[in-house]
């Protein structure tokens, strides 16, 4: 199997991504909406390589030749861009705590790359950015961030967006699709009849993780982050 991440250089892809999350100007220097440009055109034309932080990312990906590598670069961009508005004071405090130690920075960066690589929808990286912003601001712990990232990975993007903005209806049967994410739980007695009898009204509740997800998505942070 081809290993797309080049670890021969002084900085891994994960470390480069982690560093980019606290470099506001590096993100703002992008200056264009990659989502509106064909990824092949961007990579082959060298557009990303002219932007310092993405030049480093492109260099960390071997040749950026296959589709998966190219899509990963686009996911990284979609994740980083929403972080440009974070105050530098918050970035600096986060960097001191999580990124000054190269080992911690590498671990965090590799986790970000692995998460982004698994996403099946380009609407998910900006959601992850919302969770990461909460982490940078000290609103959630790192383990909570990872749980939220897993929920985003499992869920369907439209369901997750609707969950964050719509009034929650405990009897809405569509909530059942979110139970696997850990954001919603079924509150019945667990009998087979509860699950399959169309005459039954399933009752669901938002979990503590679900409350945190909603708070992060809306940037209200009205929750107790201690799960």
Description:
By secondary structure, this protein is mainly α. It is built from twelve helices and two strands. It starts with 12 loop residues before the first helix and ends in a 10-residue tail after the last helix. The N terminus is likely disordered.
Shape: globular
| Structural class designation | mainly alpha
What is the helix fraction of residues, given as a range?
A: 40-55%
Task: Return residue spans where pLDDT drops below 50 for at least 5 consecutive residues.
Answer: 1-10
Major beta sheet, strand line-up: 1-2
Q: Largest beta sheet, briefly?
A: 2 strands, antiparallel
Tell me the span between the first and last alpha carbons: 38 Å
- What percent of residues are in strands? under 5%
How many strands? 2
Order of helices and strands: HHHHHHHHHHEHEH
- Rg value: 19 Å
Q: Averaged pLDDT, please? A: 79
Determine the number of helices (DSSP H or I, runs of at least 4 residues).
12
